[in-house]
Amino acid sequence: MDLEDKVISLIKDAVRNLDSSIKEEEIPPIYLEIPKEKQHGDLATNIAMKLASKFRASPQELAMKIRGAMNQGLKGASLDRKIEKIEVKGPGFINLFLSSDSLHDVLSEIDEKKSKFGQSNKGEGKKINIEFVSANPTGPLSIAHGRQAAIGDSLANILEFTGHSVVKEYYINDEGNQIRILGESLKARVLELLGQRGVEFPGDGYKGDYVLDIAREVIKKFGDKAQQKTLYFFSAYATRSILKMIKMDLKDFGVRFDKWFSQKRLDSKGEIEKTLGLLKERDFIYEKDGALWFKSTIFGDDKDRVVVKSTGEFTYIAPDIAYHKDKLNRGFDNLIDIWGPDHHGYIPRLKASIQALGYSKDTLSVLIIQLATLYRDGKPIPMSTRAGEFITLKEVMEEVGKDASRFFFLMRKRDSHLDFDLELAKKESPENPVYYIQYAYARISSILKFEKEKKGKKVRVNLSLLNTPEEIEIIKILRKFPEIITICVHELEPYRITLYLQELAGAFHGFYNKHRVVSDDLHLSSARLVLVECVQIILGNGLRLLGVSTPEEM
After folding, report:
1. Percent of the chain whose predicted confidence (pLDDT) is above 70
2. What pLDDT, in 10s, does the model give residues 137-196?
3. Closest CA to 132 of 171, 175, 173, 174
4. DSSP state of 32
5. Using alpha carbons only, how large is the chain's radius of gyration in Å?
6. Alpha-carbon distance 461 to 522, whole Å?
């Protein structure tokens, strides 16, 4: 049982000691938080506020009584050496201050677990499908797709780190109107390059240089015979070429998908008709004005949705329902979809379809990722997708590198707009957060390498020598890592790790600038070497979860 579990058990015992008639199930869940303000201790709980009405006491009065019972039970719970004092703060918070012994135990645990520190089995092997990016194969990945890729991949890493079984999936929308327009765009460019006059380029066609590049490739392979090729050929060729480009960009970005799912294959197997047939059997589909409608209002949508037009064509929601049914049929406990901001209104109808298929709406979590704006020299860079003027993810990676790209995309909450400063991302200075963190990691590598090559006399490590304010601050930050991971899982939000790593790197640099790690004092040196190695372990754990490298030298 770890420290937090022991403290929660201590609180429960204290509550029952105050009222022996209270049952286990009557005690609400007890959560321990790390206070934002240092003067409020190392752990805090609001359990007194939750139980005040039951005990017919004010939260502060009850908190004082619980505190007294906790103090009496410290020794029996083997926590007298771990907890220095317990205080009641504000309207009824119970705050715990950990002893130096307890903090030093953190270093021993990190040193023992190393890359597994913060890891858990809280997910209990639950199968999670996380679908992200899923950009239509009509052009290169944009920076919006880059942000979705960074968040989705990092979130998958975090979920796996906490005992979930995760499958990362990319949904290929490889049929429909946009694919037809892409084929028309490629055909027009091929005919232009072959010298045909009066070629009409589609008004809503794709004008990027990448279409010209694909056209040149077609001509190189087929020559003048390309003029006889069908629209289906051009659509399929362009889709394959762009999908290959997307896969390469994602590989360079450090993102690997476990499954690539084709909408065309879903349609060819008749799965869309089968799914609509199932919903019709359950009386969730009806006919009106020659079209088929889904009764999504039954499940809270603001209006029913057309699934098959009067022309016989499927609307967007029809294949999406079939696709999510396929995922559920594969045995996933939870589905996570990562979408761009323009799809927000689509969530209620898709959750309605999940319920119509017989599952809880909570089976599906839809994460909306806000857009990012690139800045150069303090000015935003204009972008337009159809005109071919946009800056691609590949171009950003080529300019600032994979590590800075991934880290900067993760530096804000997913529902917040992101300003991406290209010049800052390239700086080799403390202003650049990813450089600052990686430099801390590399600096520690240099320290550990120096000590190893020195081959000095080994002494028994005495962690109690670590008692300066800077050292205590580092240890307190280190012990927060598992909680940060837990919060990321609860919120399905990886950005907190970026803030945490900046805090830890800042504390380390501050310590390093004030104290020597390796000195003539062998006992102090050995303790500080353990400290900095623990910092490096946690920096490495956090960076790897974000898909950012851990350089030994910089």
Report:
1. 98
2. 999 999 999 999 999 999 999 999 999 999 999 999 998 899 999 999 999 999 999 999
3. 171
4. -
5. 29
6. 9
- Packing angle, helices 522-545 and 495-514, rounded to 10: 160
Sequence-ordered list of residues with C-beta below 8 angstroms from that of 171, at least 6 positions apart, any chain: 131, 134, 261, 263, 323
Tokens of 134: 């899923």
pLDDT at 353: 97
- Mean pLDDT calculated for residue range 3-15: 92
Residue 86: strand pairing partners: 96
> What whole-number distance in Å separates Cα of residue 209 and Cα of residue 406?
26
- Which residues does 226 contact at the CB level (< 8 Å), separation at least 6? 190, 194, 218, 219
Closest alpha carbon to 349 in 337, 500, 63:
337
Q: Two tokens at 300?
A: 């809270």
Distance, CA of 515 to CA of 209 (rounded, Å): 55
Q: What is residue 380's DSSP assignment? A: E
Give the torsion sign (CA, 394, 551, 257, 369).
negative
Contact 104, 475 (CB under 8 A): yes
Tell how many helices (H) and how many strands (E) occur in the chain.
Answer: 20, 14
Cα–Cα–Cα angle for 449, 455, 458, rounded to 5 degrees: 110
Question: What are residue 305's phi and psi, to 5 degrees?
Answer: -120, 135
Beta-bridge mates of residue 170:
260
pTM of the model: 0.93
> How many whole angstroms separate alpha carbon 117 and alpha carbon 379?
42
Closest CA to 420 of 152, 208, 146: 146
Say yes or no to pLDDT of 52 above 60: yes
> In terms of Cα–Cα distance, which of 75, 83, 78 is closest to 101?
83
pLDDT digit string (tens) for 501-512? 999 999 999 999
Encoding tokens for residue 407? 């880290």
pLDDT, one tens digit per residue, over 288-316 is: 999 999 999 999 999 999 999 999 999 99
3-state helix, strand, coil in the chain (%, to 5): 55, 15, 30
Tell me the pLDDT of the chain averaged across its residues: 94
The pLDDT value recorded for residue 423 is: 96
CA 489 distance to own-chain centroid: 8
Helix/strand/coil (H, E, C) string of 488-544? Answer: HHHHCCCHHHHHHHHHHHHHHHHHHHHCCCCCCCHHHHHHHHHHHHHHHHHHHHHHH
In one-letter notation, the amino acid at residue 282 is R
Number of other CB atoms surrounding residue 513 within 10 Å: 8
Sign of the CA dihedral with 528 first, then 529, 530, and 535 last: positive
